[in-house]
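Support request from a user on the community tier.

User writes: "When I paste my structure tokens into the form, the page sometimes reloads and wipes my input. The last time it worked, I copied everything first. Here is what I submitted, just in case something in the input itself triggers the reload:"
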């Protein structure tokens, strides 16, 4: 497994998909992605059928991370929201996520209850309070390859200049990468890339506040991690709505047969052949 820190140092953009369950993680690894992101938005939606509006906590985040990390061999970065409390809560969360197998976290500066970074009505805590949380995260990690991404949502409430200054301070505090959430234009992204000397995150959400651009174009203006956190969730939702509408209206799914994986293909994704081989190995066949 390539260490996440090594991936950050390699040339070119690091394109990372968002996933929210073990099967999605296995598919992303099978496709060839070198790292993935456990999305809080997707975790809230798939565990509870509820929006990214402060409904999940540390327990759901860590439990989901444990399942996902066990399913794959590539680095998993976990959306840790605000850390679910104060600096001590963040310290404990980092310990638990590292133990669960995570390779890094995103930690944001929103005021709780937080909401998706591309929604309206966000508020942020003071930079001093966030620095306490970020410092606790840096101190808590035991593996030097565990990556901490400092996210600020200050663009929406305090303006771009404040968000940039917060990000510079976060780099000084010890963040391995910084993330200004929801810039409003490509020109704003250029300004972020020009003024912040650190590995940067671009968040590409279909229908979100930041315009979509190619990974190559974004990388050229200074961004390293190109994150697509909700593409899998939205695609799966689209497919689910279509197949269920067809089943409801026609009583069968023949129309979509060519757009589905078949029984054997799915069993291959979940590694059934490996477990059948294990079953054969451990079977006591010489019963007398």
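"...and here is what came back when it finally went through:"
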């Amino acid at each position: 497994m390539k260490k996440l820190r090594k991936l950050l140092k390699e040339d070119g953009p690091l394109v990372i998909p968002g996933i929210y369950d073990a099967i999605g993680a296995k598919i992303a690894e099978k496709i060839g992605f070198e790292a993935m992101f456990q999305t809080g938005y997707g975790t809230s939606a798939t565990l509870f059928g509820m929006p990214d509006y402060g409904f999940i906590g540390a327990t759901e985040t860590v439990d989901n991370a444990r399942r996902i990390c066990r399913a794959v061999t590539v680095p998993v970065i976990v959306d840790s929201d605000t850390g679910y409390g104060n600096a001590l809560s963040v310290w404990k969360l980092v310990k638990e996520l590292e133990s669960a197998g995570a390779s890094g976290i995103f930690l944001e500066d929103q005021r709780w209850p937080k909401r998706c970074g591309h929604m309206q009505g966000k508020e942020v805590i003071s930079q001093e309070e966030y620095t306490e949380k970020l410092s606790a995260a840096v101190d808590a990690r035991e593996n030097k390859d565990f990556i901490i991404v400092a996210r600020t949502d200050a663009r929406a409430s305090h303006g771009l200049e404040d968000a940039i200054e917060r990000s510079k301070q976060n780099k000084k505090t010890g963040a391995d990468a910084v993330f200004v959430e929801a810039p409003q234009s490509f020109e704003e992204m250029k300004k972020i890339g020009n003024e912040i000397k650190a590995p940067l995150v671009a968040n590409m959400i279909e229908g979100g506040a930041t315009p979509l651009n190619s990974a190559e174009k974004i990388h050229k203006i200074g961004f390293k991690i190109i994150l697509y956190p909700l593409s899998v969730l939205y695609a799966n939702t689209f497919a689910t709505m279509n197949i269920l509408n067809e089943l409801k209206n026609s009583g069968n799914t023949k129309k979509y047969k060519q757009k589905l994986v078949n029984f054997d293909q799915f069993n291959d994704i979940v590694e059934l052949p490996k477990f059948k081989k294990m079953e054969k190995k451990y079977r006591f066949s010489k019963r007398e």
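Agent notes: The reload is a front-end session timeout and is unrelated to the input. The mean pLDDT is 96. The radius of gyration is 20 Å. Escalated to web team.
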